[in-house]
Q: What sequence folds into this?
């Protein structure tokens, strides 16, 4: 309890609270603009936060991360266009409700479910923290290596139907992480004697290219559109209260969100799918799903908003990011000399609690903001797509150039922007590249000490957590291959 | 709604690639995910771009594999897993195996024609990469404020936002960006050479540090 109070004390500073307010409100606005999204916003703002104190910078980015999905529900429901990719499922039931003239009810349910699951997931994490503080120190080099490997395996397998492409891109990410000066023997790798390649590919430059610049290029060269949506009339608070009629689904969605969020490489989509399927299977009106079902909407929004808090677990406890956004957060930690991992839970648990309480506060700020600003946000949604591209390109400059004032960085970012554009046109995911880049570095660093006392292969799995992780990886790979074989046989029979 | 949109500009629009999904506004722009994709159902048939991309990636992987002995070191009396060459080799082999599989899968999907249209779709946005790099080159000379105003207005003009209203919006956006990032947050952007032309004094220092 003392540590919790100490964590709350860390937040009670004007600069921290202001950063939380700016991050939360900014995240909602960014989430509401289709085509921007939290990854773009965080990538752009990341270098700007380097000059800020650690908690201020982290809280601002956390605000954007945690609140963007609230904002993303607005265009998903009103104009059938998800503000962020994870709000896509919200369109299934949210927009049909709007077409029926129930936009206010749909928004109220979406905000209510998001708020409920956001708070519940953070409370679950606060309760889990003492357990994590005990488990995290049990992770040595072997366990962290295996957890990072598990993350990579999961990110490949989770892209179902695209596993080969995801594996290829994850491999590319790992390769990018090896370019430059090698950390142990200080030899050059794939630098082609070019000084600008000696320090390797900076994560932020790659992220800005793959997410922000690629999106700008896509919008600038895409069709010009600007949607209209009708203003909302009525009491949002009253509409939100309807969520109390779906307490079971909010709890279930939170459960799925927390569980899936904790596993690196899985994230919101799987949580949403499980939550939605559960809601449909237990519903008295399963046929209404996809046609404006209140239950479907609640299940989808509850699951996706429970993930951000849970995704912080592998990051904080083990220093292993589960997806692109937490990978970006990791670089903020490093810049501020806050090293996530077992030591953080042992030595700075009040800092961890401060982050959790900040997440609770951001949910409160966001829901209050949404209650009064939905009509205001409708005007922002109306920004034409190409002008949005101009805005993202202009802001991307700040993110890339302010890092080191390096023109080489800008050229590298532009190249990755072009690669990201091709990936988007091909429906291929850029996330495996980012996770490969981050997790590959962790794996290389941990693999060497992990192998120091290994005589035979089995020595690697002597400790219980290492054995568990090894079995989990093996089971996932074998299970995935078996599923592929089954699908191939079914196709052959058909 | 149409009065808020930019006028069509030849050379900017990219034709949709063959087999590209249609749908509401951003479904062509923003990558979203459907229930079918989440549940692992069948994907759409491969387009011609998929084969070209997969072949290109496979070629890159092969090239990197060939370069591996020349671009990494192998140290004597050092264990394999500590070798500087070890991790690049693991990564390149993974790229090679997965991209080979991806290429075979793309070829097996019997893509329809239209490869050249798809490549044109990849090449046209390079214009905007050049715009971005021109902006990067301009900032150290003209200063952040002037460069940003010039960049946003010129690019908006190029995209068809040519009315006085849009020029005003672009200028205001540029000004807001500079005020937030340079004046308020003090991000690390060098002062422009153009400010050196001003007489020494407080005003010049103010412009150099804030704009």
A:
């Amino acid at each position: 309890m003392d540590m919790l109070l100490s964590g709350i004390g860390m937040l009670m500073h004007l600069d921290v609270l202001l950063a939380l307010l700016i991050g939360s409100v900014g995240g909602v606005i960014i989430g509401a603009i289709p085509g921007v999204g939290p990854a773009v916003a965080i990538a752009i703002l990341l270098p700007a936060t380097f000059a800020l104190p650690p908690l201020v910078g982290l809280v601002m980015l956390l605000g954007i991360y945690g609140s963007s999905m609230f904002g993303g529900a607005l265009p998903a429901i009103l104009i059938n266009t998800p503000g962020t990719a994870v709000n896509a499922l919200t369109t299934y039931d949210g927009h049909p409700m709007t077409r029926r003239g129930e936009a206010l009810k749909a928004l109220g349910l979406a905000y209510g479910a998001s708020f409920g699951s956001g708070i519940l997931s953070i409370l679950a994490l606060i309760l889990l923290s003492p357990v994590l503080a005990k488990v995290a120190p049990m992770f040595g080099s072997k366990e962290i290596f295996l957890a990072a490997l598990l993350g990579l395996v999961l990110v490949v397998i989770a892209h179902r139907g695209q596993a080969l492409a995801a594996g290829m891109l994850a491999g590319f990410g790992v390769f990018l992480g090896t370019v430059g000066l090698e950390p142990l023997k200080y030899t050059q790798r794939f630098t082609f004697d070019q000084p600008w390649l000696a320090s390797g590919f900076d994560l932020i430059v790659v992220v800005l290219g793959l997410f922000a610049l690629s999106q700008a290029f896509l919008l600038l060269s895409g069709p010009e559109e600007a949607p209209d949506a009708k203003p909302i009339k009525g009491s949002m608070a009253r509409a939100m209260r309807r969520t109390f009629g779906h307490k079971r689904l909010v709890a279930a969605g939170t459960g799925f969100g927390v569980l899936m969020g904790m596993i690196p490489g899985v994230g919101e989509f799987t949580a949403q799918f499980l939550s939605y399927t559960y809601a449909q299977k237990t519903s008295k009106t399963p046929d209404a799903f996809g046609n404006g079902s209140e239950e479907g909407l609640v299940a989808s929004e509850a699951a996706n908003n429970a993930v951000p808090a849970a995704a912080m677990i592998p990051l904080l406890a083990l220093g292993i990011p589960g997806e692109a956004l937490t990978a970006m957060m990791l670089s903020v930690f490093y810049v501020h000399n806050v090293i996530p991992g077992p030591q953080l839970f042992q030595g700075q648990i009040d800092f961890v609690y401060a982050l959790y309480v900040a997440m609770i506060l951001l949910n409160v700020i966001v829901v209050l903001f949404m209650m009064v600003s939905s009509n205001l946000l409708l005007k922002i949604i109306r920004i034409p797509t190409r002008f949005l591209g101009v805005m993202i390109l202009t802001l991307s400059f700040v993110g890339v150039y302010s890092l080191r004032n390096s023109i080489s960085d800008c050229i590298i970012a532009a190249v990755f922007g072009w690669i990201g554009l091709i990936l988007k046109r091909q429906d291929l995911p850029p996330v495996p590249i980012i996770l490969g880049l981050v997790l590959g570095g962790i794996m290389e660093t941990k693999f060497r000490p992990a192998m120091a006392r290994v005589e035979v292969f089995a020595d690697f799995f002597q400790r219980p957590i290492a054995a568990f992780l090894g079995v989990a990886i093996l089971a996932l790979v074998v299970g995935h291959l078996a599923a592929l074989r089954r699908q191939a046989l079914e196709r052959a029979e058909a | 709604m149409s009065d808020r949109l930019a006028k069509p500009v030849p050379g900017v629009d990219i034709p949709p690639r063959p087999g590209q999904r249609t749908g509401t506004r951003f479904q062509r722009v923003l990558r979203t995910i459907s229930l079918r994709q989440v549940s692992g159902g069948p994907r759409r048939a491969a387009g011609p771009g998929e084969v070209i991309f997969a072949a290109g990636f496979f070629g890159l992987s092969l090239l990197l594999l060939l370069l591996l002995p020349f671009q990494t070191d192998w140290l004597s009396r050092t264990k394999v897993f500590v070798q500087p060459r070890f991790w690049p080799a693991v990564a390149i082999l993974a790229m090679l195996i997965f991209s080979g599989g991806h290429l075979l899968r793309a070829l097996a999907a019997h893509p329809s024609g239209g490869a050249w249209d798809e490549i044109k779709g990849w090449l046209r946005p390079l214009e905007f990469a050049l715009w971005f790099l021109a902006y990067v080159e301009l900032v150290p000379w003209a200063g952040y404020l002037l460069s940003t105003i010039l960049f946003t207005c010129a690019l908006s003009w190029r995209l068809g936002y040519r009315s006085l209203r849009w020029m005003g919006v672009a200028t205001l956006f540029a000004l807001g960006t500079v005020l937030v990032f340079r004046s308020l947050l003090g991000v690390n952007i060098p002062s422009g050479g153009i400010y050196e032309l001003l007489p020494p004094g407080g005003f010049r220092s103010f412009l150099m540090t804030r704009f």
